[in-house]
Amino acid sequence: MSIKHIAIFASGAGSNAQKIIDHFKDQQLVKVSLVVTNNPSAGVINIANKENIPLLVIEKKRFTEDGYIDELNKHDTDLVVLAGFLWKIPPILIRAYPNRIINIHPALLPKFGGKNMYGQNVHRAVLDSGDKESGITIHYVDELYDHGKIIFQAKCPIEEGETIESLINKIHLLEHRHYPEVIENILRPQTP
Ligand code: GRF
Prior knowledge:
Layout: E1 4-9, H1 15-23, E2 30-37, H2 43-50, E3 55-57, H3 60-66, H4 69-74, E4 79-82, H5 91-96, E5 101-105, H6 120-129, E6 133-140, E7 150-157, H7 164-187
Parallel strand pairs: 1-2, 1-4, 2-3, 4-5
Antiparallel strand pairs: 5-6, 6-7
Helix pairs in contact: 1-7
């Protein structure tokens, strides 16, 4: 069985990227072969350097025009994994990687998704809604924000006195527990 290569796209701290990298260390199923960021001061850059993973800092105009597809192909990318990546994925890249780009969203889609629904905005909207639970959604990426087919969801309760910070912590725990496993399930060869 040939090893599968993933490219992780992240714009921020990269705690999900770190968990994914840790999960796939010392095994022969998946290799994290590229880290991509749009943010030259993102924490994920230190992670890529520390882990000796090639890093690509991308620029908006070129991303929109050619999607850096050559770079992704050069690293034999089988799956693009968005982990806190804030730019919209251009149609050219979606067409080049059909059903091979996934995202994690820190709420229970289809609620609380769409343009500007990222970071604290999501959690604020969830708390303002009065909902009694939130969670995470892992989904395929299509040309609309937070819209593609849902692969996996996990939930957590919203408790009395819940704050944005406490909810972020709960969501991060769910993300760290489940995202690596879901990626593994997608890439693991199916037994007949
Ligand atoms: C995660 O909550 C992810 O769902 C959201 O951005 C956050 C990224 O966190 N889209 P990190 O950079 O992986 O720590």
